[in-house]
Amino acid sequence: MSKLNGKPPSPSDLKEEEDLLRMEREASQTGKGSDAENTMEVNKELVGKYEYLTLGEEVIGGRPVYVLSFKPKSKSLLVRSKIDYVMNRISGKVWIDQEDYAIARVESRLTESTQIWWGLLASLRGFSGVLEQTRLPEKNEA
Question: Which residue in 72, 73, 87, 95 has the fewest CB atoms around it within 10 Å?
């Protein structure tokens, strides 16, 4: 029997692994590439993973933004793809443009180490990242 951190895997670890293997088999049978499961888009499902707290307002690039903190809603969030193992353990801050609600900046960090396939595929002990978008000047069409 495989071990995770020196202990037998829990039933939830085994279920996550079984679900991941099943999804990979289904994807390979239908011809879906692994690129789709390793990408992330900001959508309702992603936004719904987190709890938010309003921290205040700031100005970025001359535009007012809302500043929010975020953290995972729970420790047992749904895993549909490999990237979910990481996204389910991310917390940080996000700056949202007050006019068009575009993301101006995100600071994120891994809240706990995570392993994919009990560390055989990947093992992350920590990381942090910053994403900052620069708004380009709008064209004035005459």
Answer: 73
